[in-house]
Design a protein that fits this description.
Elements: H1 12-21, H2 31-42, H3 49-76, H4 86-105, H5 107-112, H6 119-138, H7 143-159, H8 169-180, H9 182-185, H10 188-198, H11 204-225, H12 228-244, H13 249-255, H14 268-275, H15 285-290, H16 296-300, H17 308-313, H18 324-340, H19 342-363, H20 390-414, H21 421-430, H22 433-446, H23 453-463, E1 470-473, H24 480-487, E2 496-499, H25 506-514, H26 524-527, H27 547-555, H28 567-579, E3 585-587, H29 596-600, E4 603-606, E5 609-612, E6 620-621, H30 623-632, H31 647-669, H32 673-686, H33 691-700, H34 705-725, H35 730-742, H36 746-759, H37 764-776, H38 780-793, H39 798-804
Parallel strand pairs: 1-2, 1-3, 4-6
Antiparallel strand pairs: 3-5, 4-5
Helix pairs in contact: 1-2, 1-3, 1-24, 2-3, 3-4, 3-6, 3-20, 4-20, 4-21, 4-22, 6-7, 6-8, 7-12, 8-19, 10-11, 10-12, 11-12, 18-19, 18-20, 19-20, 31-32, 32-33, 33-34, 34-35, 35-36, 36-37, 37-38, 38-39
Length: 808
């Protein structure tokens, strides 16, 4: 019911496209997901290809919740008396179902389950591993138990071809096995096998050396001794090699040069760098874990984008103080399990800790309080990172189910009704209130059934391009959806997309030149780095470079400022020069920093885009073409409050809307008021949430002060509807605050801005807006207070530093 009917933002567009064409997605790769996605793309379940690939997550999540139910049932059977009484069995089943439904409809897991992302499939394998471990426990004294261990080895290494998060279960599984089985605990061969298998999460190179070597040793020893111990070692290593074989997809497909071929990992050096994520820096995840990037309170508390505690409270619909209820139940369930069967209980506790505290420590997300010395930017995470904590959230959900059983069983025994099947059934059914609350709270935010904004956003940008254009894009959301439309929907494939983030790498530069037909005058030798591991976001002019680069970099050196120039800037200037105006060149955002001013003299505004042309244009608009584009842009759902808008979608929409405001202003300044009024009226209808269009329309229609106040008052009612529909979206509180301030209702404006600030106190938007209102209302102490708070996560903001010191 809630699955996205087409592509989504972020990585989803890339995954859909790579599944369809069997491409190579971003490091460290997800070959198993792409192969399964390709199979789903062939099934005529629905018409839209992206919708088909989204169904991978739908079915995976349903299966994962089913495994969660089976795990919960098995854990409850460890408690005393469950199998001795039919009513208690019934209660256990119903409480397990409650836990599994909370698992399924927790906020983050639900969000992962309705789009083409890897996390739903990863959680399916994750809980399949936990279920297999419990099956091993039941069969540990038979030869069948060893087969479960071999299956665990295979599935755990195979899971790395989906997402490394799944391997998080393995330390708990290994400790569980050696804790339970004394023979394996004292068998050095099993320990060596465990270390060899764990290398896949540490260094793939060593893993690929150690596993076959240990397999040969195990085979020779088994043939010689015919012992079960060596047979197990051989089975574990062979299973691991077969599981890892899914990664063979990567170099095989990379060698075929698909249209999406990130890192081009067709040889060993690039393949190894790809799996080790060398593109994103040299620091390993283990090293990164010990180099703290945020305060403990921010990482464990309720902090924007990274705070685990805040994410956990939001999962099940029990917000605020009500969260004490699921928290208490989860603790009760875990304590009872450990009390009555401490080894399986300890195992499940380790699973819970690994997905919660363990992930907080391991991922070590940044709160923006540190600066990257290379780029000069803070390291604040670019979006909410709750999806990384999905294993913890869904394990916690099952703990709630365990706690419900313990609490209700205790209550029924006190009421002497524990053996009454009718009363037990009613009590068990009452537990379904919990998933009903979760579904009610999370449905709207995860309902993507009418959300076509990512598709329309991408189509609008491609429609804005002249035929055969070279389009420079900036990040994931103005690139991946466009790739998806071109590769899956075969839409505007004449446009050559050049991503300014990827263009800093040699493999992408070579692909642009040789496979995409982008004019580049640099030689291959000038573009090719000695090793992918040396790639950096910025490249200084001469320092630490090979001689082949010196001439190239000196040609673009800023002699006046001696500033470092990014590789992206150098590539843009080279492509513009080498193109010789053969192909139209357009940019999806502002012009790159270092080449902005030379190109600005040759820029022409074209709908959402900026085109660079031969003639002197100086930022003028192509009025006729832009009018046609704005009249025909796709805007499905932007006037429908049933379509949920998170901050990402709103940010992208605001960027587009702001361009519309600039175009209206241009028309007004160039004596074309009728066209300006026409567009203002159109935009108010298409984008009713954007306050600035209403102000522009009021200006175009020459509203009297009374008419303006009446229109703003009417808009306030719409703001309240927006907030009710999107309660965590800071922009709608901002709109309300601006409107109230215009109506001279200052105290109410401050209140709305304070709500936005409390939702995200690290946001520059919420801070600057509230600071401005405090200053306008003479609240000097409050301005200094929020500036001190803001500096905790933004210590390099000079304005905040000055205000905090009272220098304003």
């Amino acid at each position: 019911m809630t699955v996205q009917r087409t592509l989504s933002f972020w990585d989803c567009g890339e995954y859909v496209a790579c599944s369809y064409i069997l491409g190579i997605a971003h490091p460290p790769g997800n070959p198993l997901f792409l192969l399964i996605g390709r199979v789903f793309s062939l099934f005529p379940l629905v018409f839209d290809i992206a919708y088909r690939v989204n169904l991978v997550s739908v079915f995976s999540s349903a299966a994962a919740a089913t495994f969660g139910y089976l795990v919960a049932v098995r854990l409850l059977r460890f408690l005393p008396g469950v199998d001795e009484s039919r009513p208690k069995q019934l209660l256990a089943y119903l409480c397990s179902a409650t836990g599994a439904l909370l698992f399924a409809f927790s906020r983050t897991n639900w969000s992962n389950s309705v789009e083409a992302e890897v996390y739903a499939l990863a959680m399916l394998i994750y809980f399949a591993l936990i279920w297999l471990a419990l099956q091993w426990y039941d069969q540990r004294n038979s030869s069948r138990g060893l087969l479960y261990l071999v299956a665990i080895a295979y599935l755990s290494v195979l899971s790395v071809a989906v997402h490394m998060t799944t391997f998080l279960a393995m330390p708990a599984v290994f400790l569980f096995v050696i804790l339970v089985d004394e023979r394996l605990r004292t068998d050095w061969r099993f320990w060596v096998s465990g270390v060899v298998l764990f290398l896949v999460a540490i260094d793939v190179g060593w893993f690929l050396i150690a596993v076959p070597l240990w397999a040969v040793v195990s085979l020779v020893a088994f043939l010689k001794e015919r012992s079960l111990g060596w047979g197990l070692c051989l089975g574990l290593t062979v299973a691991a090699m077969v599981g890892f074989s899914a990664h063979a997809y990567i170099p095989i497909r990379a060698a075929e040069k698909p249209r999406i071929n990130q890192n081009a990992p067709s040889d060993w050096e690039r393949f190894y760098g790809y799996l080790q994520r060398k593109q994103y820096g040299q620091e390993s995840m283990l090293t990164k874990m010990f180099n703290r990037r945020a305060s403990w309170s921010h990482q464990f508390g309720d902090y924007p984008r990274i705070g685990f505690g805040g994410f956990l409270v939001d999962q099940f619909g029990f917000g605020g103080m009500l969260f004490v209820i699921p928290l208490a139940l989860a603790i009760i369930g875990m304590v009872a399990l450990i009390k009555w069967k401490w080894k399986p209980g300890f195992f499940f506790l380790l699973v819970l800790l690994a997905g919660t505290i363990g992930l907080v420590l391991y991922m070590n997300f940044s709160d923006g309080s540190q600066m990257d010395q290379l780029t000069g930017l803070d390291r604040l995470e670019v979006r909410d990172r709750d999806y990384f904590f999905t294993p913890g959230f869904i394990t916690f959900a099952l703990c709630i189910g365990l706690g419900l059983y313990v609490a209700l069983n205790w209550l029924l025994e006190r009421l002497r009704a524990a053996n009454s099947q009718v009363i037990t059934l009613l009590a068990g059914l009452a537990t379904l209130v919990f998933p009903v609350v979760a579904i009610s709270a999370n449905y709207h935010g995860n309902d993507r059934s009418d959300n076509y904004m990512p598709y329309d956003y991408a189509a609008n940008y491609l429609d804005s391009c002249p035929p055969d254009a070279i389009l420079f894009t900036n990040g994931d959301n103005d690139t991946f959806p466009l790739w998806c439309l071109q590769e899956v929907y075969h839409y505007r494939r004449d446009v050559k997309i050049a991503n300014l983030s990827l263009i800093q790498t040699d493999w992408y530069q070579l692909q642009l030149k040789h496979e995409m037909g982008v004019p580049i005058s640099f030689t291959d030798e000038q573009m090719r780095w000695e090793s992918i591991s040396t790639t950096r976001p910025l490249r200084p002019y001469v320092d630490h470079l090979r001689g082949g680069w010196e001439h190239l970099l000196m040609a673009f050196r800023d002699q006046a400022s001696n500033q470092l120039v990014t590789v992206a800037d150098q590539m843009v200037e080279n492509i513009v020069g080498a193109n010789q105006w053969k192909y139209p060149i357009v940019f999806s955002g502002d012009l790159p920093r270092q080449v902005r001013y030379p190109l600005a003299e040759h820029s022409l505004r074209l709908g959402y885009l900026i085109q660079v042309g031969k003639d002197q244009m100086g930022g003028a608009w192509d009025v006729d073409r832009s009018l046609d584009l704005f009249r025909n842009y796709r805007v499905r759902g932007l006037d429908d409050l049933r379509v949920y808008r998170d901050e990402v979608a709103t940010t992208l929409a605001i960027g587009s809307m702001q361009v519309g405001v600039e175009f209206i202003d241009y028309l007004t300044r160039n004596q074309q008021p009728e066209k300006a009024r026409e567009l203002a009226e159109l935009f108010v209808k298409q984008y009713p949430e954007f306050w600035q269009f209403r102000a522009v329309l009021a200006d175009q229609l020459k509203f009297t002060p009374e008419q303006t106040d009446s229109a703003l008052t009417e808009y306030l009612k719409y703001c309240d509807q927006l907030i009710a529909s999107n309660p965590d979206n800071i922009f709608y509180y901002q709109y309300k605050a601006l409107t109230l301030q215009t109506l001279k209702r200052s105290s109410e404006a401050v209140g709305a801005a304070e709500v936005a600030y409390r939702i995200n106190p690290a946001s520059q938007i919420t801070y600057r807006s509230l600071l401005s209102l405090y200053a306008q209302n003479g609240r000097r102490e409050d301005a200094m207070r929020i500036s001190r708070e803001y500096l905790v996560s933004n210590p390099f903001d000079q304005t905040a530093r000055a205000v905090a010191a009272g220098q304003f």
